[in-house]
C-alpha cells in the first residue's frame, strides 16, 4: 500500500473539468491551516507537492495527483478563512459541494480536523453535512504530536477527538472511520494508506 509514484495531473475549475479516466479518488478537505498541505506531502514523502493556493479570494481549484498510476489524491481548497468575505465562503460551498455530490469516482472524503485545538463550529457543520448527504467520509485528525506541549487549559489530542465524537454523535448512524495523524512524526501515514487500499478493494 506504499506510494511509489505521485504525479500532479491537473488543476480543475469545477467537477465537469476533472479527469475522466475513471480512477478512484480520495479528497482531502479541511479548514485553512489544518495541516492539509503538510499531510499531503507526508503521504507522498515529498515537500511542496501541494499546489492549492492559500490566499482566500483567489480562483479555487480541484487538484488531482495520480498515485501509482491507479488512484487519485485530490486537494480541495481549504474552508473557513477568518478574513474571507462572505462571497468567498459562498463560492467555496457551491464549488466543493457540487464536487462532493456529483463526482462519481469519489470513494471517500478525508475531512481533516485539527486535534490540537477544540473542534470549530464550521468543522462540525461540514462533518454533519457530509453525513446527512450520505457522502462517505473519513475523519483525519491532524497535529496529534502537539499534545505534549499543551499545558494548563489546553486539552490533549485524544480529549479533543473524544469531544468531537460526542458533539457529532447525534448525527451519526454509525461513527465514520477516523485516523489520528501527525505530519511531524508521520503518525497515521501507514494507517491512511492501508485504509485507502482497503476502500479500493471493495
Ligand atoms: P494547510 O493550510 O491546511 O495546508 O496547512 P499547512 O500544511 O500549511 O500547515 C499549517 C501550519 O501547521 C504550519 O505551520 C505547519 O507547520 C503546521 N503543521 C501542519 N501539520 C502539523 C503537524 O502534524 N504537527 C505540528 N506540530 N504542526 C503541523
From TrEMBL:
Q: Could you give one GO CC term from the UniProt record?
A: chloroplast
Q: Does the keyword Flavoprotein apply?
A: no
Look up the domain of life of the source: Eukaryota
Which cofactor(s) are needed, names only? Mg(2+)
Q: Which residues form a coiled coil?
A: none
GO annotations under biological process?
Answer: cell division
Q: Where is the EngB-type G domain?
A: 22-202
Q: Which UniProt keywords apply?
A: Cell cycle, Cell division, GTP-binding, Magnesium, Metal-binding, Nucleotide-binding, Septation
| UniProt GO molecular function | GTP binding; metal ion binding
Kindly indicate whether the keyword Nucleotide-binding belongs to this entry: yes
Instruction: Spell out the family assignment given in the record's similarity comment.
Output: Belongs to the TRAFAC class TrmE-Era-EngA-EngB-Septin-like GTPase superfamily. EngB GTPase family.
**What's this protein's name?**
EngB-type G domain-containing protein
Native source organism of the sequence: Amborella trichopoda
Amino acid at each position: 500500500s506504499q506510494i511509489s509514484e505521485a504525479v500532479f495531473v491537473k488543476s480543475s475549475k469545477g467537477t465537469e473539468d476533472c479527469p475522466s479516466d475513471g480512477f478512484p479518488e480520495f479528497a482531502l478537505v479541511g479548514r485553512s491551516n489544518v495541516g492539509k498541505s503538510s499531510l499531503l506531502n507526508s503521504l507522498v514523502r515529498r515537500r511542496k507537492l501541494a499546489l492549492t493556493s492559500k490566499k482566500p479570494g483567489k480562483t479555487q481549484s480541484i487538484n488531482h495527483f495520480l498515485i501509482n498510476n491507479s488512484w487519485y489524491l485530490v486537494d480541495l481548497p481549504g474552508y473557513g478563512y477568518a478574513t474571507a468575505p462572505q462571497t468567498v465562503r459562498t463560492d467555496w460551498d457551491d464549488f466543493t459541494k457540487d464536487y462532493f455530490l456529483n463526482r462519481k469516482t469519489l470513494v471517500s472524503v478525508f475531512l481533516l480536523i485539527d486535534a490540537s485545538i477544540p473542534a470549530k463550529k464550521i468543522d462540525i457543520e461540514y462533518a454533519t453535512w457530509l453525513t446527512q448527504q450520505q457522502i462517505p467520509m473519513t475523519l483525519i485528525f491532524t497535529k496529534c504530536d502537539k499534545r505534549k506541549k499543551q499545558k494548563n487549559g489546553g486539552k490533549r489530542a485524544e480529549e479533543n477527538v473524544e469531544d468531537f465524537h460526542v458533539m457529532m454523535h447525534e448525527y451519526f448512524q454509525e461513527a465514520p472511520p477516523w485516523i489520528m495523524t501527525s505530519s511531524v512524526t508521520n503518525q497515521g501515514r501507514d494507517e491512511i494508506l492501508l485504509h485507502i487500499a482497503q476502500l479500493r478493494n471493495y
